[in-house]
Write a structure and sequence with these properties.
By secondary structure, this protein is an alpha+beta fold. The protein contains eight helices and seven strands, in the order βββααββαααααββα. It has helices spanning about 20-35, 40-65, 90-115, 120-135, 140-155, 155-185, 195-225, 255-260, and strands spanning about 5, 5-15, 15-20, 70-75, 80-85, 235-240, 245.
Length: about 260
Amino acid sequence: MKMVNNALSIGSVLGIPIRLHISLLIAVGAISLFSGLPLLAILILAVGIFGSVALHELGHAVVARAKGGYIHEIVLYPFGGAAKISNLPTRPIDEIMVAMAGPIVSLALAFIFRFFEVTTYLSYLNAMLFFFNILPVFPMDGGRVLRAALTIKHGRLNATRMAAQVGKYFCGLFVIIGLFGMPFQLLGLIGPFRSNFMLAFIGGYIYMAGQQELRMVMLEYQANHFSGHRENEIEVEVSPPPYARGGDASDSFMDRLRRMFGGK
């Protein structure tokens, strides 16, 4: 095993390197210290959860590679995974296929795990992963499907603007429910409307990722018209949730997280 960009290589699947970010290892260690659960139980649960996330990412990666994309690696973080891809196809039908490949894998895993009592939780987790990712919240999977459908009539740039606008409203809803779920309960709206700071964090993060990708597409559009740059040469990170896009594959989740809180 070797460390690459603060991520520990644990092997490869179909020639695609799989790595664990050091923050994930720290998170698992912290949970084992403060949760009171046996270390073995935590490790088994972690393997199941992040194995499911890795398979979700492999779904994206395999289809993207079949469509001409180049897969650098899959990195697993405490909050999800990222498949780092160059030359991601931009034809609407290809983008839809790549975007839906991950959720389809999650749905298949949810169906398989439900037949075994010891994997009931993993079945639920994969079902949630499927339903959350197909929401039309750009730049998650469902948001990319929406963008691809809009591209057919409006072009890629305008479609990205429209999808990002739709995603903004969903992200605002996530933040409101995450921060102020308790008032919804007082109004009699119980169930999913409970305070959940993680949901608020995810809403804010997805919004930032969507705005970042919109800026990238605008730059691609300008470069394509003024310098002949091909728009699909920009590298992309694919992750549930959410997608995150950047011009450099080394621009990791943790780098963006630091910038979110004012770091450099």
